[in-house]
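I am writing to request your help with a piece of structural work I have in hand. What I wish to show you is a protein chain and, alongside it, a tokenised description of its three-dimensional fold. Could you please explain, in whatever detail you think fit, how the structure tokens follow from the sequence? You will find the record immediately after this paragraph.
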Amino acid sequence: MGALPAAVVVVDRAGDVVQVNRAAEALFGGALVGAGAWQAAWARLQPPRRRAN
């Protein structure tokens, strides 16, 4: 999996990240393995919210 050029993230049924490859770490900006890591990574991918006028 480490040699794949595409980012790969393996998540268990509880939503915890159990395995990632180097491309995923580069995309998400660091280590992702652990409880709650997927939610934090997903939040970083979301566009910034615009403030209401």
Helices lie at 22-28, 37-45. The first strand starts at residue 9 and ends at 11.
